[in-house]
Batch of 2 targets.
Target 1
Amino acid sequence: MALNNKKENLAQPQVLNLDDDFSIIKKFIDGDQSAFKILVKRHKEKVRNIVYLTMSSSDLVDDIAQEVFITVYRKLKNFRFESQFTTWLYRITVNKCKDQLRKKNVRKIFMPLQEGGEVSHFATSVEENDLSNVVMDAVSKLPVKLRIPLLLKDIEGFSYQEIAESLECEMGTVKSRIFRAREKLKTILEPLEKELIL
Amino acid sequence: MNNKEKYFELLSAYIDQELSAGEISEIEKLLSESVELRNKLEELKRIKNLTGKIEPLPESQHFESKVMAELDRGQSGNKKFKRWAPAFALGIVTITVMIVLYLNPNIISDFWKEQKTAIAGFYKDNLQPVLYAADLTNDDIFNFAFNNQLPLNHSRDQYLHLGYDDSGKEYFEIRPAIQVVEESGYDKFISALKLNEQEKQLVDSVIGSYAEALESQVLINDKNTLAISPKLWNYRKAIFSDLLIVAENLNKQEFVKFIPRGVSPDEKIKVVNALHKLKSTPEKQYIFCTPDSVFSDDYEFKLASIEKEKIKMDKETEKIKRIKININFDSSWKKLNESSNPQTDFRVEVDSNICRVDISGYNIPEIHMPDFDSINLFIEEATKNIQLYTYKIPRIEHLKEGLKFDYYDGDSVHSFEFKYEYFNMDSVMQQEYKIFDSIKNNNRFMFKWFNDSALAKYQFDVDYFSKFYDRETMKEQMIQLKEQLRRLREDMIIKEEEKEKGRIIKVK
């Protein structure tokens, strides 16, 4: 009985389905290049959406997403199977977006100021844009460190644990940032309160 | 963080279903007790609901294929290379150029030489003697010797003007007729020497003997090239000297008004030798003035001496007569000034009226006339005196104590002096007007002022003018005069005061 208890306490070997991420990665490591295509196909939309939401623009989505998968391709042979593939993939995605945003900010410093300053994309009334765009505009005004956890939660449906792993931070931090993001978003959307029926 | 905020944060996690069972029961208990918390919960739910409204991107159908294609092309590695490719390329090109230059240091100069030869060949094609086509008259040749200008075409609407700058270096100008001194200098010369018709014919024949020699001195072609033999400056001196010798032979009595000391036998021999050498040496080098550049180059031009060839020439002449040097007097020529060939250092100045080429870096070949330099002083003196005599410009000499004027009236020379101590404003001003009247009435100073000209100073012939009259000096003198008048006025006031006091003043 005691032996049985011990057995129960031991980590059980994971039973892999033939089509789960780990199996596909193993196939790829074993030399099946087509396996990578399956991985891309499976996760592309999630990656593209994270890029879109993080960058608040659809302009560079495919370019950045492509860079993400190229990085994954190069590093996949060293994947250690210690965490979910998606956690690792989203971490790479978020980091790529952060890199891009950093470059964008540097570029802004050296770009001559446009006449009348930077034009706000924020809609002045709901009629001008549909609800999705209005909210997207408002979200884009959030600082990146608040925006990313909020979107990963509310749009991608990640758990706090997954978000913490993707962003390489504590769960408490994620909880706090999501709350602060909502508070700030409320302030941003206040001028449109009536239309949005906040 | 206060308790309220802590509970709000818990509410946010509550709607995300991220609370533990214990936390859920705690927050639900609090919610049942607090309206504020319930309101906050609703608010947070509305916000969450709104963010959930954000629409995802439309699906990308062929994304994976694109990624795979990119991977297949090995673009992942090449992207970095692509980014740095221009820098790599530039580096490689620079290194290659450096190696090539190191191994072949003369490659650039050789290349330019080749280019220069090719361009020079283009502009040297089919050059024709423009002065032959212009039908030079005795007046033209005399005008060349005495006023340094030659017509550049048959219709005489363009002239070549030769000159010397302040440092004595030669320059030439292409001027429109409107900018040229118009005067019948030859007639004045003959009448000043009081020559009869027979004697005039003799001078005519001397002048006429230079017509043929001059014809090969200036060439043009339909590529807008003007080629000038550097010997032209020497020819001018030679013709000028020769005419003086002839003049002395014909009427020494009148000639001494030009050169009181006359022409020495030694100078005569030098002139004759120089003329002989000039005429017997063929033109081997020309200065080419083209729409692109000014350069000197070897070029041999033999004027047809056989009558048959002359007939051929006559056919060509009609063509030449139609050619007009169309130097583009525009801003592009100004670049020539900046990018003048350092080897020959032709300096070009152009405005809408005149093209001036300073040939300060180019040596006029004097080697064929080694003794000619020694008669330069004689030529200079004669030029000055002839101008003085012929044009009747008063000569003004600046002395410390005043001004001395010499002016000519027929055969007489009148001189008088102004002494500063006797100056009064009226007499000075009156004299000023007289001088200017005399200048104005003389054709030599009938010039057109340029609106846009940087060359106005040349057009005004400031060298000539300053020989006789210096405005700056006059200005200084006027200032001094004013000062003297002021002192005089002060003295007068003192005198009046002294008078009032009954003193007797001795006036100097």
Target 2
Amino acid sequence: MFNRRSLLKAALASAASIPLAGCSAFDFLRERDNAMRQFMISINNLTYSAQRLLLSADQLAPEFTEADILQDQHPNGTTEPDTEDYVALQDNNFADYKLQVDGLVERPASLSLEAIRALPSRTQITRHDCVEGWSCIAKWHGAPLAQILDSVGVKPEAKYVVFHCFDAIEKSLSGEILYYESIDLTDARHPQTILAYAMNDKPLPIENGAPLRVRVERQLGYKMAKYIKRIELVADYAAIGEGNGSYWADRGYEWYAGI
Amino acid sequence: MTNHTKAGRLIKRQKLSTRLTHGIWAICLFFLLLSGLQIFNAHSALYWGDQVGFTYDNDIVTLEGFPGWMTIPSGQDLATGRVVHFFFAWIFITTLFIWLIASLRNRHLSKDLLPTRKDVENFVPDIRDHLKLKLVHAVRYSPLQKLAYGGVLFVLFPLIILTGLSMSPGMNAVLPWLPELFGGRQSARTIHFIVMALLVGFFVVHMAMIILAGPLNELRSIITGRFRLPPRKRTESENV
């Protein structure tokens, strides 16, 4: 016969064993192709939809005042790129630097720093939030990405902007992995999305991404690629890196880092 | 049925919606806590204000980081910690909305949780009873129970959700005033951590009370909904 008391005792005993199991019991979630992890990620994709629903295309990230700039921007990731082509450009103070803009565009372009500096610019004091948990406020100055996209003419089938970078974020026996990131066209055309060449009223320091880094103020720091070499417009990012659209997304982080 | 009378009346105390949401929250909070400690370990210090002082001091506390047996996953793995944390955050918030609607409709809120004038009158005696570890079982929650459950449901739960959302750069663009309400993004992170500690504190007391009040009766009530009232001598004959 169904015995409620024994059922309760069994429930109590199994509940008590949860803490004893320890948290390595859930380490299977670390496996990238684990079905439960995949399911969790599919639910977490609601964050992207929800934020796109709640945020109008032009809604700005909070901006701060000069009084909030209390320190230099804390650098993270690569702080001193040592790839050959980067070092050569650096030796000449980036005078020979050219930003390549290509992919699904009408008129692929190669822009010098001088040309980018001549474009109408935007200045914003914003808070940079790292996925690790820290934040830092700095003043950024650069050219809105939207006008560069307009000048090259984005083809209708393009959906993402991919940033190919100079810096080798990972070096192993099998070779170097150069940093890469991507954002959708909503974020790419956002008024605060700029290719920054100055920070806190000074030329962008090497450790913060000289000569050009992107600011994507409604997402976390790893989306804001530094040392940008080339901007490519694509219909999907399956062919980039391991196919998740970003160096960190290929390592298990969210491609959309609005949270 | 003398035995039954001695043990007191068995009543239907908890509705299915209450029991289900309670169970889902318990699971959610377990995973949110341990994945949250994993996320904390990526930068194991707490600050006040909007940013982290790298060249100035605004830290409140700097910790070594939580050991692997307290985190999900057990090793350092921020990416997986975030996957787990956000998944259970979605389930947690969805369940909270379902509970709120169900509890308004079935009057769990107004009947069981809303303090009455009688609760105010009984407040001090109830504290006295609890201090003597004399737990009174009745059809209704005691004033301290209402305070504890109400505090978790209407203060700690909203606070931990809002401080969590304050850390989202996307949500900061939606509600720019939200992190400032807590004194800045890093303050919100600190409050998120403090509320976590308060919820752990609630859990410890909650477990202690269940053990003191009779764990089998309490567990039955939250699993099957049935709760046995203490014997009432005067009504013994009525129940035969």
